[in-house]
Amino acid sequence: MSKPAIHDDPLYQLLRQEKIEEFNQQRDTLAQDKLKGGDYRGLQLSHMNAENLDMSDSYFRNADLRGLDLRNTNLEGANLRDARISGAYFPSQLTAAEIRMSVELGTRLRYVDT
Fold first, then answer.
1. Domain 1-114, CATH 2.60.40 — does that match?
2. 3-class SS shares of the chain: helix, strand, coil, % to 5
3. Where do the H-state alpha helices sit in the chain?
4. pLDDT one digit per residue (tens) for the chain, 114 residues
5. pLDDT score recorded for residue 114
6. Distance (Å, rounded) from C-alpha 77 to C-alpha 1?
7. Which of 37, 38, 46 is nearest to 70 (CA)?
8. How many CA atoms lie within 13 A of 30 on its CB side?
């Protein structure tokens, strides 16, 4: 597992600059492959359309994920340390205990078979 990266990719940069509305408008027209393993520390992402994104191995420390629908988002290996997750939906492959450990202890999210 590599360290979270900051990419030059245009779609990734929209998230880094917290231009969530622009991201939502362009997400289906630009390549999404650079979102995986990204560094999203401290970002306000609460209105992002995360449907079917691969954000596995990403780092979300102190990010605002409140209210996001992440049910169809790949978060395997992601770190949620101190993220704000109130009202967020998570993939069914993640247990509440797994999410809690990641938020409180910074463990990487591990999927379980459903």
1. no
2. 20, 10, 70
3. 10-16, 20-26, 96-105
4. 567 878 899 999 999 999 999 999 999 998 888 999 999 999 999 999 999 999 999 999 999 999 999 999 999 999 999 999 999 999 999 999 999 999 999 999 999 986
5. 62
6. 8
7. 46
8. 15
* Closest C-alpha to 75, from 21, 38, 23: 38
- Those residues with Cβ within 8 angstroms of residue 49's Cβ, 6 or more apart along the chain or in another chain: 23, 24, 27
pTM of structure: 0.92
- Please, are residues 12 and 38 in contact by the beta-carbon 8 Å criterion? yes
Q: Which two tokens stand for residue 32?
A: 């999404």
* CA-wise closest residue to 75 among 22, 63, 26, 24: 63
Distance of CA 71 to the CA centre of its chain: 11
> 51-82 in b/e burial notation, b at 16+ Cβ within 10 A?
eebebbbbbbbebbbeebebeebbbbbbbbbb
Instruction: State the CB neighbour count (10 A cutoff) for residue 38.
Output: 23
